[in-house]
Amino acid sequence: MVINLENIYKIYKMGDTEVHALDDVTLKIEEGEFVAIVGPSGSGKSTLMNILGCLDTPTSGKYEFEGRDVSKLNDNELAAIRNLRIGFVFQNFNLLPKLTALENVELPLMYAGKSTAFRINRAKEMLKAVGLSERLHHKPSELSGGQQQRVAIARALSADPPIILADEPTGNLDTRSGHEIMEILKALNKNGKTIILITHDLNIARQAQRNVHIRDGKIVKDEKVGS
Amino acid sequence: MDILQTLKLAFRGIIDNKLRSFLTMLGIIIGVTSVIALVSIGQGTTSKVTEQIQSMGSNLLTVNIMGRGANTTLSYDQAMEFSSSPYISGVAPIISENVTVKHGNKNSQVQLQGVNADLLTVRNYSMSEGRFFTPVDVSMRQKVAVLGSQIASDLFGFVDPVGQEIKIKGYNFKVIGILKTSSSMMGSTDEQVFIPITVAERILQTRGVRTIYIQAASKDAVSPAMSEISSKLDKIYRVNSEDENYAYRIFDQSAMLDTINETSKTLTMMLGGIAAISLLVGGIGIMNIMLVSVTERTREIGIRKALGARKRDVLNQFLIESLVLSSTGGIIGVAVGYFLSWGLGRVLNMSTKTTLPVVLIAFSFSLLVGVFFGIYPANKASNLKPIDALRYE
């Protein structure tokens, strides 16, 4: 089991009122699954994604990542998980605007302590895999939205993590680019990556193997879908 | 984390924000420049003053005789008794008077100095031509003269004076040498004419000396030599206590040198200290801009942390940026400071001396400022929670 959430709560205090962003969430994800977490905005799906990605900590509950209790890990161990075990793809791409596509893709490898030669080779390979061999030295601002998201995917893959966390990866893209991104994610899943996709769009969610519906911080439905 | 990559990015950041980086560095540049320029001026002045004092002769004591009652001078023989002391290596009594010196139809008002052979070493003079007096010249009362450089050219123009004759008080003197031009805090020899003291006693019809230059055998011998001289003079002039001593004065050159050195060192330190304050202010400027930069780049920090950057990586990144800013400022400051001291030396004719230690100290101080004022912003950046940083708009 890659991910095991048990009775996870995330409570924000807004003045006097408490907001239950996650309310008793229990979820297990196995290796090699392609899971879509589906819900409208404000349902708590982004909070769930941040906790899954070790970017945020739950108020209470137990989270085991690859069998390790996340609450017992220190900052450096969490950084290592984000670096080597999880690849992030964000809705707004989150590329560093001053770096070229190649340098953006190199970043995780740099934090993994790889040599310059290895980094450049690997980053070129990754960008080639997403069809951007011609755009190595372009800044994000010189690329289209679809291209930027492909750079972000190449970056997520560069350190070869077994899990990809994608938060509304198609949200800021036109239909065609969105379709391309989904094809890439499906291909990655076929090659053995565990994909966790967060979306509000049922048409996108249907392309996964399993849909977890979330509403008001609670899981309301967990179903297999045929792809 | 790759240091080279971080350095590259830091430099790129500076180039991307040229004006802001320059203004940030300006504080450091001004600080380093002023430290180097001011300390160079201080050190240049110190070494020039030291050089001038030392050019008067090493371990020099000057004894001025005022005398007591009718007994206002010391005889040459009495003065020479000092040379028997083991602490004293040379005694040069002087009789001096203003006279007119003639050669052919030219004449010139000069200060005539009756001296002995020791004067050359005691006062550290050197000859440009010919020779100085020998003890035999003095004891045999030879009518020979040594000229200061200015007098030599006034009287003789382009003719070689050595071997020529000059007339002083109606007597003919043969010129045997010319002194090298020299100027020090105790006056110049350029307009002086020297003759053996025994001859001077006769033609000036005076029997006593009022000034004696005495060279101590070594630096350590200066104070025993002084006490020996004063005990002898006390006996001659019956001086009972220091307070009543109006009969003579002993002037110690090395004590003056020490005092001046001490004073100018203090002044140099003070100048450097004041300049260092501007370096400190420059450091605060760096801290300010680094804090702004951390806020501006909160999202970048979040992205980096999501990609696996550890606290240490983020800390290093911001520290290196602060160091790159301060060291670039430091290097520019060193260059400008060096150029400024050189320019002050050339254009304003000030004596400046830029030494390697000063440059190194000023530069490492700028690095220190970079680290010190960079730590707080860098620490702030590294402690951001990834989720808070990522959400920041």
What kind of sheet is the major sheet of chain B? 6 strands, mixed, barrel
Spatial sequence of strands, sheet with the most strands of chain A: 6-7-8-3-9-10
Give the mean pLDDT of chain A: 92
Number of strands of chain B: 12
How is the biggest beta sheet of chain A arranged?
6 strands, mixed
Distance between the first and last residues' Cα of chain B: 27 Å
* Rg of chain A computed from alpha carbons, rounded to a whole number of angstroms: 17 Å
Rg of chain B: 34 Å
Class from helix and strand fractions of chain A = alpha/beta
Oligomer: heterodimer
Structure description:
The complex is a heterodimer of chains A (227) and B (393). Chain A has 227 residues and is an alpha/beta fold. Chain A is 34% helix and 29% strand. In chain A, 48% of the residues are buried. In chain A, the strands form two sheets. In chain A, strands 6-7-8-3-9-10 form a six-stranded mixed sheet, sandwiched between helices. Chain A is globular and about 50 Å long. Chain B has 393 residues and is an alpha+beta fold. Chain B has two domains: 3-52 and 258-391, no CATH class; 70-75 and 90-211, no CATH class. The radius of gyration of chain B is 34 Å and the shape is elongated. At the A-B interface, helix 2 and helix 3 of A face helix 1, helix 10, helix 11 and helix 13 of B.
Topology:
The complex is a heterodimer of chains A (227) and B (393).
Chain A (H helix, E strand, L loop, with lengths): L2 E12 L2 E13 L4 E5 L6 H8 L7 E6 L2 E2 L5 H10 L1 E4 L11 H11 L4 H14 L15 H14 L4 E5 L7 H16 L3 E6 L2 H4 L4 E6 L2 E7 L3
Parallel strand pairs in A: 3-8, 3-9, 6-7, 7-8
Antiparallel strand pairs in A: 1-2, 1-4, 4-5, 9-10
Helix pairs in contact in A: 3-4, 3-5, 4-5, 5-6
Chain B lengths: L2 H14 L1 H38 L4 E6 L10 H5 L7 E16 L2 E10 L3 H4 L4 E4 L4 H5 L4 E4 L1 H8 L8 E4 L2 E9 L3 E2 L2 E2 L3 E5 H7 L7 E6 L5 H16 L10 E5 H44 L1 H9 L4 H37 L8 H27 L3 H6 L2
Parallel strand pairs in B: 3-10, 5-7
Antiparallel strand pairs in B: 1-11, 1-12, 2-3, 2-6, 2-11, 4-7, 5-10, 6-7, 8-9
Helix pairs in contact in B: 1-2, 1-11, 2-9, 2-11, 2-12, 9-11, 9-12, 11-12
